Amino acid sequence: MTLVYSNTRIVFVSYRVILNKVGTDMDALTLLLNRSSQPRLESPAPSGDALENIMQAALRAPDHACLTPWRFIVCTGKGLDKLGALYEQSAIENDKTQKEIERAVQLPHRAPMVIVAIAKHIEHEKVPRVEQIASASCGVMAMQMAAVAQGFNGMWRTGSYAQCDTVRNGLGLSEEDELVGFLYLGTPAFEPAPKPQRNSSDYFEFWQ
Predict the structure, then answer these.
(1) What pTM does this model have?
(2) Are residues 84 and 14 part of one domain?
(3) Helix, strand, coil abundance in the chain, percent, nearest 5
(4) What CATH number has the domain bearing residue 164?
(5) How many CB atoms lie within 10 A of CB 202?
(6) 112 and 57 in a common domain
(7) Domain membership flag for residue 6
(8) Residues 79, 167, 140, 107: is their CA dihedral positive or negative?
């Protein structure tokens, strides 16, 4: 069960309840307080208006000086094969075992859609690189939230392939760009295990 707030009251709901509210009256606070990644994803992937909503959500990320320092690559079908080929090439170049090489090819197929999120660095005297990476990262979370609000979910993955020159070059990144991660999207295969509740006092302090 998961902690949420409703009309200033603390209540507990399951992820299944959240899905039942999709498309009806699920509010933003319920969505945020129940955020959870979903590693097991299946078809269908978002498409049509649902996908457009997800992409538009990314474009509303905080953006100092309105630089729009982002680039996103939506991979489906053969696009997942292309991404897998980059993983495979990287695995070969890094002397991975045959089993690891074979697994690398299949990694993008853990979901029917993968959105590659890139922070595209733009030189600006008031907006350092770290802020531009943060902006792109906010876009990733916004996309996952928009996906959940429409009955889908996702998993934000990084790992060694996000730092690999072979993958970076294959995706067209410059030296200053940052590969923020791979957002796997699809339909949840099952209800995820509830995440443990954290005590806000462990992480927040008040200066009054």
Answers:
(1) 0.87
(2) no
(3) 45, 20, 40
(4) 3.40.109.10
(5) 7
(6) yes
(7) yes
(8) positive
